[in-house]
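Researcher: Structure for this, please.
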Amino acid sequence: MPKKLRLLVIAHSTEKSGAPKIATQMAEGFAALGHDVVACYPESGGCEEEARAAGLKTAIVPNPVRPVADASGAERIRLMLTRLRAIWLYRRLVREGRFDAVWIGSYIAVLAGLGAWLARVPVVYCVQEDPIPTFVNRQRVRVIRRTAAALAFVARRSQRVFKPRPKRQPWIMLPNFADSTRYSHEGRDEDLRAKLGAAPEDVVFTTLAFIHHRKGIDVLLRAFRQVVAEQPQARLWIAGDNVATMMDYRREQEAYIAEHNLGDRVTFLGHRDDVPAVLHASDVFVLASRNEALPVTIIESMMAARPVVATDVGSVNDMIVPDETGAIVPPEDPDAFAVAMMPYAAEAELRAQHGAAGRARALDLYDRPRVVERGVNLIRKVLAARS
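Model: Predicted structure, token format:
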């Protein structure tokens, strides 16, 4: 019988989406396979709270993400000292916890990796994001290439950035995932549709995204304006948190909605803890992002048997099969996005056909137990090479 592993899983923030959410669910998956798992976060709340609710042990290590270059004077010195302390705290946590390996859910958490490396415990990075080529990110990549025992990549473009050395750093493509049991609802959730203002004859397009320029909400609204002009039964739900630094962007989108009289067809739902229900109350999922890796929201929508229209960023073209499970369009092109949305607004049979094909594909490629087991196998490969 394979040895039970003691694993530390590190998330770079407590946000209930993206890389922190996947890191938390990976920790839950490791635990479900019988391993002894501790999930580590920079603060309490959010995903850390969800991890505790799921029965996981958690640890807190403050880890500031604000770039030192953005600070000045005494604040810069304080940030540098805080980062040095974070490395020391991670090292102490790893040594005292006697972990077999450390799984890091984002290349951003490089300080955690340094701490584990100094504790002489193998570090496996799961690279979620497609790194933007800034000075800070280039340094992160260099440190990871030197200290990682293994790498898992969500997006192929990220693998090209990190250029792992297979003999020294085994690596795999490891997609994001979702728990398929949460998305098994048949048909539409008519009760929630009614509560959210959708009539039975409406065709609801939904996006799950922060209200952020990177998520292309402006592109989506411009595309939707064209769709609703041709298909008046179309409706758009935008489900996601505001971002403090993007409130001007939010107000710009609200002004566009008012200017073009879309207020009765577009609804901001805010943060939702009932994502499966929202998807089951929807008809089509849309994502107009300017930058992504392998979006969990697309996986969730496929699991919910909803066709997907998304921009060709990150690994989206690995996820969607055009004319079978959805449509892929160029980023920054509202006209093309509108053209891709039109058939789904008009044809219920097409929505059902592509939604069913998407669910079958998601179950085959993105169901959590399959993906988590591959992560465990990578860790075992690293440990075997060291024994």
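Researcher: Any notable elements?
Model: The mean pLDDT is 92. Residues 104 and 125 are 5 Å apart (CA to CA).
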